[in-house]
Design a protein that fits this description.
The protein is mostly beta strands and 184 residues long. The protein has helices at residues 24-32, 75-80; strands spanning 52-56, 61-65, 94-101, 105-113, 117-123, 139-142, 147-153, 159-167, 174-183. The chain starts with 23 loop residues before the first helix and ends with a strand.
Length: 184
């Protein structure tokens, strides 16, 4: 949305030569009433070869869509890896990002989404993608509506996490992931 202050407003329907002049407050109120879909401009990343769509790092903010992601992670996957005990039918495409945190760091990962997408993070130091036959040292989830937040903490060494945005019942949608880090 572009906001132009100090400009005259014309409806284009006036038959007189005089343009209606609105005070700045009335101009802003009219502009703010225009509905804007903040998610309509978000484009999906290309489908990744493996499960990881791309990197994530401290201070980063990225926007993407689950559309085009893999559907490798499901309810069985999250329950077997002890991410979440409740059955929610995560059977649609997910987007997964690799986050490497330095030692002695507290990171807050936040997910905002246009629909009911959920946030998952699991500790995973390997290059391949975890399956239900593998074990992970930690996994957590925030399955609230329209996003969530997780706090990840590292101890005396760098640690790699896989962070996922996934929708219940094959829901696909746009999302924003952000990571804020502080040293402990």
């Amino acid at each position: 949305m572009i906001l132009l202050l100090g400009c005259e407003l014309s409806t284009g329907f006036s038959t007189s030569t005089e343009q209606p002049v609105l005070d700045p407050v009335e101009r802003i109120e009219r502009i703010e009433r225009i509905p804007v879909d903040p998610w309509s401009e978000v484009e999906a990343s290309p489908t990744p070869e493996g499960c990881v769509t791309g990197p994530l790092s401290c201070g980063s903010v990225l926007e993407d869509r689950t559309t085009g992601g893999h559907s490798q992670w499901s309810n069985d996957h999250y329950r077997t890896l002890f991410c979440h005990p409740i059955h929610h039918d995560w059977d649609g495409p997910e987007r997964v990002y690799r986050l490497v945190l330095p030692a002695q760091t507290v990171a807050t990962v936040e997910l905002e989404s246009e629909g009911d997408l959920d946030l998952f993070a699991l500790s995973w130091p390997h290059d391949d993608c975890p399956t239900t036959q593998m074990s992970v040292s930690s996994c957590d989830a925030d399955v609230g509506t329209s996003g969530g937040s997780l706090t990840l903490v590292t101890q005396d060494r760098d640690q790699t996490f896989l962070v996922a945005a996934d929708g219940k019942s094959a829901l696909e949608g746009a999302f924003r992931l952000s990571v804020e880090c502080v040293a402990r």
